[in-house]
Design brief:
Strand content: 5-15%
CATH architecture of the largest domain: 3-Layer(aba) Sandwich
Distance between the termini: 31 Å
CATH superfamily of the largest domain: HAD superfamily/HAD-like
CATH class of the largest domain: Alpha Beta
Number of domains: 2
Structural class: alpha/beta
């Protein structure tokens, strides 16, 4: 880890009473069994089916969210249809999504140490809740704040979802930490005034997340387990 001394992982955990988890990455790989590019292609067809051409970056991206964001530049109606299809595809991907190693240990360590834990995600609320129920996490997560709108301006890197989570938890942002695997998570966390723990789950992500301004960066969720257990909150 390459964080300043005042922002070592132990020190972040010591001031964290509320742990916020991004979903796709820190909780699971939602498109492990249904490739993300397949979903992006389905969304692209909703746009090109209207005789519209796509810019090169949108025509080739693997990221369904990027296609959704682009659709909103065309019309609110198209954005709503693309978001609805993306929700269907995310829900269909849940049964074959791959759990992230040690995520159950992190959830257990949070609860055992007296901390609240929430999921804050650009993925659909329907898919997130379905996954948590399928994997026995629904009654162990205190709050889910996920996509319920066809307005992409409400998604990270906007701080909107994080602000909602902080408000619903009645939390102080200074006592919250967000774990995310993308620069958009880091940006949203910084805007919301919460610590950001970058999760570098792929080669090259460590430097990418550090450069984006993550408070600290980890390469495995196992790095959180002992610090959480070692610093229980007072009753």
């Amino acid at each position: 880890m390459t964080a300043p001394a005042e922002n070592t992982l132990d020190q972040i955990i010591a001031r964290t009473r509320y742990l916020l988890l991004d979903f796709d990455g820190p909780v699971c790989d939602i498109f492990a069994g249904v490739p993300d590019i397949t979903v992006a292609d389905r969304l692209r067809k909703l746009i090109t089916g209207h005789g519209l051409s796509l810019p090169d970056d949108i025509a080739t991206t693997r990221d369904p969210i990027a296609v959704f964001i682009y659709s909103a530049t065309i019309s609110p109606d198209l954005s709503a249809r693309v978001e609805a299809e993306m929700t269907e595809q995310e829900a269909a991907a849940v049964p074959v999504a791959r759990p992230t190693a040690y995520v159950h240990d992190v959830v257990t360590s949070c609860r055992d140490s007296g901390r609240a834990i929430a999921v804050v995600s650009n993925n659909s609320d329907r898919a997130v809740r379905s996954y948590l129920q399928l994997h026995g996490l629904d009654d162990r997560i205190d709050l889910v704040v996920a996509r319920t709108s066809s307005d992409p301006a409400l998604l990270k890197p906007s701080q909107h979802l994080i602000d909602m989570a902080v408000s619903e938890l009645a939390a102080d942002p200074a006592e919250c930490a967000l774990i995310g695997d993308s620069a958009t998570d880091v940006e949203a966390g910084r805007l919301a005034g919460v610590d950001t723990i970058g999760y570098a789950n792929k080669p090259g992500k460590f430097d990418h997340l550090a450069t984006a301004g993550a408070t600290t960066v980890i390469t495995s969720l196992v790095d959180l387990v002992l610090p959480l257990r070692a610093r229980p909150l007072p009753n």
